[in-house]
């Protein structure tokens, strides 16, 4: 039984580390089960954007009027994304916001340096929400960037044009360039928007992502803490095993 318990504890620690990696930044050493669980639910760029997979990417951010309630959170996590993932994983990147019109950080993909990342983060702080949702224009502009490998489209709704028109145009663009479009929905209750974003990601071999809300994270944390912060488990794990 003791051997079994030790094996279960080892598996649980791996789950905690995996949650920490997915929902925040790199796995960090912790001295107790409780602090380890708390760290797992700190806000990080992966919670909203997922993991950046390609080396040359463009981030498309919806700044239409309906994004007003989400924009401050998006700006905060976009800054985290630039510093946590783009700076470490990507060779080059660009940022593009869209509403009625387009606003790009640079005219093309830019080499990922510390200086470029600082400049990009400063650009993010000036984003404002207004106007409609010109997703098609944003996608067409992004596809024009040389050497692009992946797009990450973050929005809270459908485009201001026909969804089928956008999907057909993206299919046409991909005949010339094999670019994956990963989609992120901030309004998972809008079924039509979710269906559109799922199709867009599927058609381009990308991923669809709907981030977990703060309320849900809190409930998960509570449930896991109830099971893990128990003296039979917490006191048994040694500092050496956890670290």
TrEMBL record:
Pfam families: VWA_3 (PF13768). InterPro entries: VWF_A, vWFA_dom_sf. Residues 56-233 form the VWFA domain. This is von Willebrand factor A domain containing 3A.
